[in-house]
């Protein structure tokens, strides 16, 4: 079937090493927090475990497989590391690949089936690798498939499964083009121009062949990859766009800006719905939770916030990182969150 086409890569087994978490205090993780009605309570979240790395961590992503507690993160030291989270043991590194890229890893994205992992780097390459985890928990990866064509740092990668089973988009510096790749053939099948400076944010729609992008030029754009053009350009204040996220129903688009603001638009007409100003420094990361109930924002002010999407009020502000927060990502199935920072740590919040 079409959903299995990504299985056809003939990638030889790569080299990696099993590892224990480097440092980090491993406290036991409390049960998921529930309110009186059994709902998720953001204010009750706390950082329960920390992974300390040697370099700044730019990107982190949970494996979407329902049975997995695996996450991957990329470092400035060129290493790709895999960790496992659990309520009993916190979060610990179980596998790492040194020098996975020739430069810092800026972007990490899992395919929805949780087997293929895409990464982007300032070595100007996009790489695809197949990740497997045995019943015993052992992780392995295949030698990466390298997608070449970018002329500058690859800052964003995202899978576009509504276009094809193994299609993905990428963008970054250099020629500032949005590129669509067929992972089966390793070919760039489409390049779209529209941004006049580095692409710094990207997210794909769940139900349509759409991708939203944000740039250093201040533009926020929604592209239809089948029609091969920009279908909506969202009005913004012109500050650098650092992150963007579509809600699960693809009806709302949020973007984080260098002036610390976060703006939300409805996607059909492109109308601005809310402008949020709860951070003190760059809004570096925005992401809707899988149920669409909350928007998680992370900032260079060192905090992570949960915003109620119904009325835009900030439900909780979480502190714990000792330096700028780069990304915060909700677990796809558990009421957990992972964050990474310039303080060289990954933190697990429950």
Can you characterise this structure?
By secondary structure, the protein is mainly β. It has strands spanning 47-52, 57-62, 70-75, 80-86, 90-97, 105-110, 116-121, 126-133, 139-141, 145-147, 154-159, 167-172, 178-182, 187-192, 199-204, 210-215, 220-224, 229-234, 241-246, 252-257, 262-266, 272-276, 283-288, 294-299, 303-308, 314-319, 325-330, 337-341, 345-349. Strands 6, 7, 8, 9 and 10 form a 5-stranded antiparallel β-sheet that branches. Strands 1-29-28-27 form a 4-stranded antiparallel β-sheet, with no helix packed on it. A 4-stranded antiparallel β-sheet has the order 2-3-4-5, with no helix packed on it. Strand 12 (167-172) and strand 13 form a beta hairpin. The model is unreliable at 1-15 and 17-38 (pLDDT under 50).
How large is the count of helical segments? 0
| Cα separation of the termini | 38 Å
> Radius of gyration over alpha carbons?
19 Å
Note the beta-strand portion.
over 45%
**Overall number of strands:** 29
Share of residues in helices: under 10%
Uncertain residue ranges: 1-15, 17-38
Class derived from helix and strand content: mainly beta
Mean pLDDT, as a whole number? Answer: 90
Order of helices and strands: EEEEEEEEEEEEEEEEEEEEEEEEEEEEE
Largest sheet: 5 strands, antiparallel
Large-scale geometry: globular
Compile the SSE list and pairings.
Elements: E1 47-52, E2 57-62, E3 70-75, E4 80-86, E5 90-97, E6 105-110, E7 116-121, E8 126-133, E9 139-141, E10 145-147, E11 154-159, E12 167-172, E13 178-182, E14 187-192, E15 199-204, E16 210-215, E17 220-224, E18 229-234, E19 241-246, E20 252-257, E21 262-266, E22 272-276, E23 283-288, E24 294-299, E25 303-308, E26 314-319, E27 325-330, E28 337-341, E29 345-349
Antiparallel strand pairs: 1-29, 2-3, 3-4, 4-5, 6-7, 7-8, 8-9, 8-10, 11-12, 12-13, 13-14, 15-16, 16-17, 17-18, 19-20, 20-21, 21-22, 23-24, 24-25, 25-26, 27-28, 28-29
């Amino acid at each position: 079937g079409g959903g299995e086409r990504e299985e056809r890569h003939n990638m030889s087994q790569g080299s990696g090493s099993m590892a224990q978490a480097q440092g980090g205090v491993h406290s036991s993780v409390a049960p998921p927090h529930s309110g009186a009605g059994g709902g998720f309570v953001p204010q009750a979240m706390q950082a329960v475990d920390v992974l300390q790395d040697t370099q700044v961590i730019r990107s982190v992503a949970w494996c979407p497989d329902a049975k997995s507690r695996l996450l991957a993160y990329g470092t400035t030291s060129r290493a790709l590391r895999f960790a496992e989270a659990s309520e009993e043991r916190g979060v610990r590194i179980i596998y790492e690949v040194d020098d996975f890229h020739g430069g810092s890893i800026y972007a990490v994205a899992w395919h929805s089936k949780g087997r293929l992992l895409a990464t982007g780097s300032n070595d100007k390459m996009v790489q695809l690798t197949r990740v497997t985890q045995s019943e015993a928990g052992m992780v392995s990866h295949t030698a990466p498939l390298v997608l070449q064509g970018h002329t500058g740092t690859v800052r964003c990668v995202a899978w576009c499964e509504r276009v094809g089973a193994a299609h993905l988009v990428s963008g970054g510096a250099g020629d500032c083009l949005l590129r669509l790749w067929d992972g089966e053939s390793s070919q760039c099948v489409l390049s779209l121009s529209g941004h006049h400076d580095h692409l710094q944010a990207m997210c794909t729609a769940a139900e349509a062949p759409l991708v939203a992008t944000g740039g250093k030029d201040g533009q926020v754009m929604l592209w239809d990859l089948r029609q091969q053009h920009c279908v909506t350009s969202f009005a913004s204040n012109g500050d650098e766009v650092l992150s963007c996220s579509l809600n699960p129903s693809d009806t709302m688009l949020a973007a984080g800006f260098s002036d610390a603001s976060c703006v939300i638009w409805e996607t059909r007409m492109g109308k601005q719905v809310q402008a949020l100003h709860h951070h003190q420094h760059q809004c570096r990361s925005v992401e809707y939770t899988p149920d669409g109930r909350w928007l998680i924002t992370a900032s260079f002010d060192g905090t992570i916030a949960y915003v109620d999407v119904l009325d835009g009020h900030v439900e909780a502000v979480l502190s714990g990182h000792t330096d700028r927060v780069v990304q915060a990502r909700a677990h796809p199935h558990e009421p957990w969150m992972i964050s990474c920072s310039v303080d060289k740590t990954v933190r697990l919040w429950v």
